[in-house]
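Hi all, long-time lurker, first post. I run a small reading group and we've been trying to get comfortable going from sequence to structure in the token notation. Rather than ask abstract questions, I figured I'd post a concrete chain and ask someone more experienced to write out its structure so we can walk through it together at our next meeting. Sequence below, copied exactly:
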Amino acid sequence: MTIDDPSAVSPGEICDLLTTLPSGRRWLGILTGWRGRGKTTWCSALASVARARGLAVAGLLSPGIFDTNSLPVAERIKLRIDLVDLATGYSRVLATPGDPHAEGHGMRWHFIQETIAWGNAALSSADAADLVIIDELGPLELTHGRGLTAGVELLDEHRYSCAVVVIRPELVAQAQARWPEAVVLTVPAWDDE
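-- Answer (accepted) --
Happy to help. Here is the structure in token form:
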């Protein structure tokens, strides 16, 4: 099975693809979309659908935690970013607001090194899963060579059967150059799953 329309693929279609892959064949999807478009929500739905079909899921989600005051959703303030281990369900705080100049990577987040180490340990053992989800590999990993480097290694070394990695739009060309076999998926409608 192939993905005919990468802009409309659902979590169920990815699971269908996974179950039809010939033995030893790998598949990698790059899920992209602008901030706030639902990439993490889509990945969470993918993990749920895969588990419901009896598939082993591993990897990481990085949901943003927002101020829940009465502001419209588009105006809510992101308070932190968590990291969720999909194999265990455990989560830890990954990042809190920080000074872009003090952090040495130009982003407005302070990344907690203990959580990054914990996430790298989870990714290092993710290769036995039927589906690996990595939400996300960004400038920290692809530009600065820091952060969730075990995820980059897992993809570089092809230690997965089926994997979906979240990459922000401005880094997709770089990711495609690194993983030319990847299919680029945009955040689709997925609420029918």
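A couple of things your group might point at:
Confidence is low (pLDDT under 50) at residues 189-193.
The beta strands are 27-32, 57-61, 64-66, 78-85, 91-97, 109-111, 131-134, 162-166, 183-186.
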